[in-house]
Amino acid sequence: MSLQNFLNQAISSWMSQDGPDSDIVLSSRVRLARNIEQYKFPTVFSKEEAEEVLELFKNIFHDKQFDSMGQLQMLVMDELEPIHKRVLVEKHLISPNLAEHSISGGCLLSENEELSIMINEEDHVRIQCLFPGFQLKEALYTTNRLDDWIEKEVDYAFDENRGYLTSCPTNIGTGLRASVMMHLPALVMSQQMNRIIPAINQLGLVVRGTYGEGSEAQGNIFQISNQITLGKSEEDIVEDLISVVSQLIDQERSAREAIYKTSQIQLEDRVYRSYGILTHSRIMESKEAAKCLSDLRLGIDLNMIEDVSRNILNELMILTQPGFLQQYSGKALRPEERDVRRATLIRERLKLEEDSQKRTEDDGV
């Protein structure tokens, strides 16, 4: 398979499209945790009950269309190859827990991959909406409409005082987790993130790596999300997160401007060295790739590099993960083989970008 054809099949809309403030905010996500009233929670239910819940959602929602996002297709975890489940995790469409530890788990996925409904994860239902850029309000609006659409067919476990009942007490109430993925290289370079992260935590928010709890913030990419789900409305939770993220956007832009003014040559050297490594390396470990891609994206955002798409970071931070590398190769790869394939894929992707730019210039002549 050619890289272009692979990209056409592999890239979700949030990776390839621009959104508001997408120079800093890569994506916005809203997730709702729900349980079905007549079944035990997944932490204690039997395999037979799990299969009933999965079959219920498959019968009601498989092949049904929600708005313009296309039909929902049911993916049953037990029927997928391990590599395919890993790719879904790497694309942020399902959780590692659903992929590896769920009982009779499944996922209803929209055609454009903006909507994902996980079945039998920690809760019976995890409804998720993922948009490009800074679109938390839009994600909340869409997720709530999808939630209402589902609730027409099933009865949720709900208490008048406690709100939506969930397996984990930290999700009780609204059951809402809102998050944004942010690229914050200048705040890291200026060593401001060490001060900012504790301040964010005191506001009832949490800062994590790209893949959530327990993951590392590689490539200067951080996930900011709410911790509090009880005692506030969904709108208030999202507004609080928007307020903090807006301040982070302003701080990152100010930090970029300051670094560019005071250390332009050093910054340009860093960006172009990383660009050279990406375009010429034959072996590339994941951490090095993340660092170099972060530098390249910063150079693009500061108009140092004009012939590479801004969304290159969104794409390559996913495409260079182990699952994608093995899917593209069509076989299982040892770690050292993945490092070689990672370097090759990055070179090929940047070459595609260069060829696209040349065609655009030729068409303009």
From TrEMBL:
Keyword Translocase: no
Record InterPro entries: Arg_Kinase (IPR023660), ATP-guanido_PTrfase (IPR000749), ATP-guanido_PTrfase_AS (IPR022415), ATP-guanido_PTrfase_cat (IPR022414), Gln_synth/guanido_kin_cat_dom (IPR014746)
Cellular component per GO, a single term: extracellular space
CDD domains the record matches: bacterial_phosphagen_kinase (cd07930)
Top-rank taxon: Bacteria
Gene Ontology biological process terms, A to Z: phosphocreatine biosynthetic process
Pfam family, any one: ATP-gua_Ptrans
Regulation: Appears to be allosterically activated by the binding of pArg-containing polypeptides to the pArg-binding pocket localized in the C-terminal domain of McsB.
Record's keyword terms, sorted: Allosteric enzyme, ATP-binding, Kinase, Nucleotide-binding, Transferase
SUPFAM superfamilies the UniProt entry points to: Glutamine synthetase/guanido kinase (SSF55931)
Function: Catalyzes the specific phosphorylation of arginine residues in a large number of proteins. Is part of the bacterial stress response system. Protein arginine phosphorylation has a physiologically important role and is involved in the regulation of many critical cellular processes, such as protein homeostasis, motility, competence, and stringent and stress responses, by regulating gene expression and protein activity.
Protein name: Protein-arginine kinase
Species per Swiss-Prot/TrEMBL record: Metabacillus lacus
